[in-house]
Amino acid sequence: MLDEALADEIFGCSEPVGNKVSIGSTPFLVVGVVARGDSMLGPQNEANVYIPIRSWQNMFGTYVNNLEGSAVSREKVQETMDQAVKVLERRHRSSAQYVSLHVV
Question: Residue 79 sits in which domain range?
Fold first, then answer.
């Protein structure tokens, strides 16, 4: 997926969905475009591309400095963040290493 700014920069007026973009020498099929302002981390000044985590790990290694997700409702945001932290702690056999941040 591409954010709207990057899709506009690369494809202009053409439809990006169904086309391919490359990161390095790895091609990716564009399956969607994220509207401006849809990031949960607040306003974005950079162009963003979203790729599957396994693809990221294969290309850049296993270190990830942030994850972005969504909850089914506003009421479930904190519960969803708490669950995500628990999963990370369990998978990495560590505690107090992960921080959840909710930006409105």
Answer: 69-104
Same domain, 83 and 60: no
Same structural domain for residues 37 and 58?
Answer: yes
The pTM score is 0.62
**Pairing relation of β-strands 33-34 and 2-3?**
parallel
- Looking at the structure, do residues 76 and 61 belong to the same domain, yes or no? no
Instruction: Report in angstroms the alpha-carbon separations of 74 from 9, 71, 81.
Output: 32, 7, 12
Walk along the chain (104 residues) and give the pLDDT tens digit of each residue: 998 989 999 999 999 999 999 998 999 999 999 887 645 555 556 778 888 888 988 888 877 777 777 788 889 888 998 998 888 888 888 877 777 776 65
Count Cα neighbours of 17 within 13 Å in the Cβ-side half-sphere: 5
